[in-house]
Design brief:
The complex is a heterodimer of chains A (374) and B (314). Chain A is α+β, with helices and mostly antiparallel strands and 374 residues long. Chain A is 22% helix and 34% strand. In chain A, the strands form four sheets. Chain A has a six-stranded mixed beta sheet, sandwiched between helices. A five-stranded mixed barrel of chain A has the order 11-12-13-20-14. A five-stranded antiparallel beta sheet of chain A has the order 15-19-16-17-18, with no helix packed on it. By secondary structure, chain B is mostly helical. The longest helix of chain B has 34 residues, at 87-120. The chains are: A alpha+beta (374), B mainly alpha (314). Chain A binds chain B through residues 59-61, 80-82, 84, 86-88, 90-92, 94-98, 107-108, 111-112, 141, 155-156, 159, and chain B through 204, 206-207, 209-217, 220, 224-225, 228-229, 231, 312-314.
Chain lengths: 374, 314
């Protein structure tokens, strides 16, 4: 990569007030972000959130109706896809069925007028990188799903683009292969140091592969943070709910300070940490509290819970065995009608509680996120 | 959740009755013969053609005695020798063959962009317009269309009227070779487009986007990706247009005005003008051989696999 040519402070990709308006739909609204050179960004969101539209604008297939996109500091709004230095792995891979693996990988080199003598060696080098050595003469229908993925990656990277874009290429794979390919993407990305933007609706994939995550919903960027920040300090209820399994309780904000805030939920007062910007938080306004399913402890007796800030009694409504953990759904009258969801991970004793059993649950105040509707 | 049968949609009940009737009528265990049974009408149809061909083969081996107007009761190759040695027949065959090839090439060149735009346009209005424009000529029929061209291209036709306004002497636009080819291209275009459209639909738009993002210009995407991937459709469309043009009768008859006969016209003349059924049959077999050889060459060059006939394409 031409890392040396770029001043360190220039982001590899940035978007400034980017919007995309389809005839009657605002697919992307006022998107702003920056991505540092060599980093792996994942745009995460449900379908229809505008994440693919944003990616297609960066690739050059769509022209933003507003705002600017910069690649290495240069505005690229009017630059055609074939004039951008962007490699893309497509959702359905879009491999050329009438060519062999090697011809597919050689295609961008030929189109970008690389030195013809160096092309075969370069193609082999990249087929080795994706561990496809020996399969260069296979046609696409003679390769397995995972091998096709690898051809698509090699083809997108072989011309050493400034930017690699991944448009949910793993969505159609089965879970085991998908997880294997996620790590493979990560390995190749680290090995080449290529700046990468990945689009997915799979929150686990986003957490596993990324240096930076942007969560989108309804065409708007909800949060732009590192995976750990995103997980630990969600900015709003949508992010809290979309990443991980989260319990939400609605109430009224009673007090707010840097140390903590209090919310009245029914007759209860819940204490936690305010995640919304404090100037928007007017006392008495609507507030939502969020606790992750794995932050709630569960036990048959109150003293088995350990030290907790707040405890309740509840009745087990459902137990779902998920292999490495159990998911409990509890009815806790004090916390409203919605079932409270709890993950139980205890390796030593998988002491299961039966449906109908009365159990004790509780959490620490630092694990309760409070959001105020602005 | 039990619902009374009468509350089901009427079409379900009709289907139920049909299925019950069918199950009662159809012999049990006849399931594995069903596909063959469904083939029989087609086999009978083709079989009848083969019988007809045998008769034609027989007639082609008998010469007409012009004094008695009876056919010889022995077999002879005289008709074949005559067909291969008569300059007029050579001219007609060459004219048909060259015409069919030219018409095929021109039709494919015109049909490809038409089909591509029809398949790729984001506007449903444009797509509908192109589809209707494509199907309308089918409703009109070949003979009526050919007469339409007579009116337009005739000496007192619209084209010559317009040319007359700018001071051009009336041109002879009809009853020549270009007129026949023009009419044939116009007649074949819908066939070409209809054969090409599914082949182009089968190419995902994402493939073209990928080609662009990999650095290919629009032209290179067409030549390196779209055209090779559309090859089965191009060959299929080419075969249909080629064989239909080679065997066409109406366009050479009407737009050629008897001066631009194709093989089919020569055969017609033998059967219905000179009543030489023997020589007519010989020419008919010659036409079949010519068409088969052409199709055979195309298969040999491109392989039957390109037409997705080898079953390996998913």
């Amino acid at each position: 990569m031409n890392t040396n040519a770029i001043p360190a402070q220039t982001p590899a990709v940035s978007a400034s007030n980017v919007a995309m308006q389809f005839s009657d739909l605002m697919a992307v609204k006022d998107a702003n972000f920056e991505l540092e050179n060599g980093r792996f960004l994942t745009i995460l969101g449900p379908s229809g959130s505008g994440k693919t539209t944003l990616l297609r604008m960066i690739a050059g297939f769509l022209k933003p109706t507003q705002g600017q996109i910069f690649i290495n500091g240069k505005e690229v709004n009017a630059v055609a896809p074939n004039k951008r230095s962007v490699g893309m792995v497509f959702q359905k891979l879009a491999l050329f069925p009438h060519m062999t693996a090697a011809q597919n990988v050689a295609f961008p080199l030929k189109m970008r007028r690389f030195d013809a003598k160096k092309i075969p060696a370069r193609v082999l080098e990249f087929l080795n990188l994706v561990r496809l050595d020996g399969l260069e003469n296979r046609r696409m229908n003679e390769l397995s799903g995972g091998q096709q993925q690898r051809v698509a990656i090699a083809r997108a990277l072989v011309f050493e683009p400034d930017l690699l874009l991944l448009d949910e290429p793993l969505a159609a794979l089965d879970r085991k292969l998908r997880e294997e390919m996620q790590l493979e993407f990560r390995r190749i990305q680290k090995e080449l140091g290529v700046t990468t933007i990945n689009v997915t609706h799979d929150q686990r994939e986003a957490l596993v592969v990324s240096d930076q995550i942007i969560v989108m919903d309804n065409g708007e960027i909800q949060q732009d943070a590192s995976p750990t920040q995103m997980y630990r300090t969600p900015h709003n209820p949508f992010v809290a709910n979309f990443i991980g399994v989260t319990n939400l309780f609605d109430g009224k904000l009673m007090s707010a300070s840097a140390e903590g805030a209090e919310v009245h939920v029914g007759d209860l007062t819940l204490s936690g940490i305010l995640r919304s910007s404090s100037d928007a938080s007017v006392l008495g306004s609507q507030a939502r509290c969020a606790v992750r399913a794995e932050q709630i402890r569960i036990a048959a007796a109150p003293d088995a819970l350990g030290t907790l800030d707040l405890t309740f009694q509840g009745v087990v409504k459902d137990v779902i065995f998920e292999g490495e953990r159990l998911l409990y759904e509890l009815s806790v009258p004090e916390l409203g009608d919605e079932p409270v969801r709890i993950f139980h991970h205890d390796q030593n004793d998988f002491a299961t509680h039966d449906v109908g059993e009365t159990v004790h649950i509780g959490w620490m105040n630092r694990d309760l996120h409070i959001f105020v509707a602005s | 959740m039990q619902r009374s049968p009468s509350s089901y949609p009427i079409i379900w009940r009709v289907m139920d009755v049909l299925e019950t009737t069918f199950a009662a009528v159809w012999p049990k265990g006849g399931g594995k013969f069903t596909p063959y049974l469904m083939l029989t009408p087609a086999i009978v149809l083709v079989g009848t053609l083969v019988v007809g061909l045998l008769y034609i083969g027989d007639s082609s081996l008998r010469v007409l005695d012009r004094s008695t107007f009876l056919f010889s009761d022995y077999w002879t190759l005289d008709n074949y020798i005559r067909a291969l040695s008569e300059p007029f027949i050579f001219t007609v065959v060459w004219r048909s063959l060259l015409g069919a090839v030219i018409v095929t090439i021109v039709t494919l060149m015109l049909a490809f962009p038409y089909a591509y735009i029809m398949v790729r346009t984001p506007s449903s209005f444009v797509r509908k317009f192109l589809l209707i424009a494509l199907f309308l000529p089918f409703f009109i029929g070949q003979v009526v269309r050919a007469y339409g061209w007579l009116i337009i291209l005739g000496n007192q036709g619209i084209v010559n009227d317009v040319l007359g306004l700018v001071g051009v002497e009336p041109l002879r636009l009809l009853f020549n070779y270009p007129a026949v080819l023009f009419g044939l291209v116009q007649y074949m275009l819908p066939f070409g487009v209809l054969m090409l459209a599914p082949a182009l639909t089968a190419i995902p738009e994402e493939i073209e986007a990928a080609s662009g993002s990999l650095g290919a210009s629009w032209v290179k995407t067409m030549t390196h990706i779209v055209l090779p991937m559309a090859k089965p459709g191009l060959i299929g469309a080419g075969l249909v247009v080629l064989t239909l043009s080679l065997t066409d009768f109406a366009m050479p008859a009407i737009l050629g005005g008897g001066t631009q006969d194709f093989i089919a016209n020569a055969i017609y003349d033998q059967f219905f003008r000179t009543s030489d059924q023997g020589f007519g049959s010989t020419l008919a077999l010659l036409l079949i051989a010519l068409g088969s050889i052409l199709v055979g060459i195309i298969f040999a060059v491109f392989g039957a696999g390109t037409l997705a006939l080898d079953g390996s394409r998913k």
